[in-house]
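Hi R.,

Here's the chain you asked about this morning:
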Amino acid sequence: MLEHKLSEEEHSQIVQTIEMFEAITQTQPADYQSLEILKEAYQKIGRHEDSLRTSRKLAEVYFNVGSYSNALQECEGILVKEPNAPDILAMLGEIETRLQASGEAIANATTGSGSLINIHSGRSARPKHGNLLDRGDDHLAKFLIVQQLFSEEEVTAALEMVKQLNKDLSGQALAASLVDSLCKEDADRLDAVLSALIDRTKFAYVPLEYYEVDRQIGPMLPDYLTLGRLFVPFDLVSRTMMVACCNPFDAAGRDTVQQKVDYSVSWYLARPSAIVKSLQSIYRLETRD
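And here is the predicted structure, written out as C-alpha cells:
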C-alpha cells in the first residue's frame, strides 16, 4: 500500500516524469541524478520492482565513479529486500575494502593544501556567497571559442551585446542568452553547442519544450534567478528540485539557487528558446516575436 493516495493529476505527472527520465537514462546510463529521480518516481506509484532494478543500476554507477558511500547506501537498501543477492553482497565487500583504503588515503593527506571541486558537488564544497554579477558568460564564451564552435569575433560581439542587455534587468524582464544570440535560428549550430556542453559538464539534457512544467514550482525561486538568469524549476520529485538552464557555467547562480531552497537540486541543460517559453508560461508574460 502507498502511504499517500495520489490524485489522478499527481499520478499522471509522475508517469510523465518517468517517461522522460527513462529516455534520458537510456541515452545517458551513467547519469546518477536522473537514476535517483527515476527510482523515487517508480516508488511513488508503486512500481517497486522497477525501483529496485533502478537502485541496482545506481549502485553500479556510484561504484564505477568511485562514490563508494553512495554505492554502499544503495546496496544496503537492496539487501533489505533481497538479503541474499550474490551480486550485491560481492559489490558490498568490494566497496568496504575500497572505503577502508580511501579512508587511509584521506588520513594521510590531512596536511595537504590541495582540493578538488566538481561541477556537481554539494553546497558544502562551494563558497557560501557567490558573486551574482558573474553570470558565467565569460567562461561560456571562452569554451565556445576553444571548442571552435564560433569565431572569436562572433563570440566577442555577441558577448558584449548580451552583457549590455543583462546589465540593468528589472521587473519581469527576461535575461538574454549568449547561446541564443549566437545560434539564432540555426538548429544545427545549437545542437552542436548543446552536445559540446553536455560532454563538458555531464549535465543531462531535458527536452523542456515537450515537458508540462508545473507553474507552482517556478515562483519558489525569486525572479532574479528565474527570469534574470533563465533558470526553470520544472519538477519536484521527493526532496529533489529539477532545474533547467542554458548556461551551465553560471556557478554563482547555481550556488544561490541551492541556498534559496531546502531541496537537493539537480541541474539539466535545455534549449534557450524552450526555457524562455516555459518562463513566459509560468509568469504569464507576453510572447516576444
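One quick note: The chain has two domains: 8-108, 137-282.

Cheers,
M.
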